[in-house]
Amino acid sequence: MVASAYIYNNAKAKGDKEMILGYTTGDNDSYKSLTSFHKYINTIATDTFSFNENGYIVGATPENELGYAKKKQIKTYAVISNFGETDFDAELAHIVMTDKEAKNRFIKQLISLSKENGYSGVNIDFEAINPIDRSNYSNLIKAASSALHKEKVKTMVSVPAKSSDDKKNDWTWPYDYKQIGKYADYVQVMTYDEHGSWGDSGSIASRDWLQDTLDYSIKNIKSKKILMGIPAYGYDWNLDDSAQNKLVQWDYIQELLKKHKVKPTYDKVTASVFFTYNDNQKQKHVVWYENVLTIEKKTKLVKKYKLGGVSVYALGHESTSFWKAIQQGIK
Which of 142, 226, 282, 303 has the CA that lies 20 to 30 A from 19? Predict the structure, then answer.
């Protein structure tokens, strides 16, 4: 009976139906997080690969993460992004999407990478692509998915969050939800970074913004293909010196709360939390993030919208309470 109860609870924790995906970055923190919280997830995506202008995939295979995932029967996806030397490279993405030879090599490389490392699938993550490449990107996803499916490899595509198809929005317009959703097995909607260190302070994923994104998403993509993104971080805005604005990890946020002896304020409008503090230079800061209460509430949208699951970016600095909030929300 004890063994049966363990198996049942473990299966329930991992999710009987929904995908609970954790992004890893290949570093020691990600591996430690994976080994500590593996019972809460059923899929990982290793964010360690990019490619060059000739279509060759570059990057390191996180063998320790893959080995551990296989041991625990956790599915694995290889993330391939257009991240260049310092940021996402639109021109690099353009070349692979439009140069026939580079495109064909890129797709063959996806297959080889998957087969050689036993990946369940690939997660194509092209960001900041040019508006002129909207149809080119959809065509790449179509071709890649077709080739990968022949090899029984799944295709996941990451897309920025949006609530409409606005041609004036250069960041989101290049992503044709309907076409991408038609060919991909899963579409990971990045429902975070509504506000960030690059701009004004505010919620990372406010309730209305999140629901507007999901409303639009399910109109264009089969709901069971959609993964809702959950941030394992927040942002710290220095209100006296914006050059000091930065991303702050989940564990560091908890340290800030203790250090400055402050309690977060729940914002009813956004269903997110924030707090303020003064640093050693007496400069004022505001930190917005999602706590265990808001994470659980927002994760409940998976059931409401009948989504395929959730994705967490990224493993490495969470706590047991963080994962338990997701577990409770997705029940």
Answer: 142
pLDDT at residue 204, rounded to an integer: 98
d(CA 70, CA 51): 25
Structure tokens belonging to residue 150? 């022949």
Residues in the chain with pLDDT < 50? 1-15
Per-residue pLDDT, 8: 35
Q: What are phi and psi of 157, to 5 degrees?
A: -130, 130
**Joined tokens for residue 282:** 């007496």
What is the rounded distance in angstroms from the CA atom of residue 215 to the CA atom of residue 35? 35
CB proximity list for 169: less than 8 A, separation 6 or greater? 162
CA distances from 81 to 141, 252, 319 (A): 13, 27, 27
Cβ atoms within 10 A of the Cβ of 247, count? 14
Q: What does the alpha-carbon distance between residue 104 and residue 123 come to, in Å, rounded to a whole number?
A: 17
Chain-centre distance for alpha carbon 327: 17
Which of 63, 91, 116, 127 is flagged as catalytic?
Answer: 127
Q: Give Cα separations from 153 to 63, 74, 150 (angstroms).
A: 19, 15, 8
- Say how far apart CA 203 and CA 226 lie, in whole Å: 22
pLDDT for position 16: 55
Residue 17 confidence (pLDDT): 83
At position 120, the amino acid (one-letter code) is S
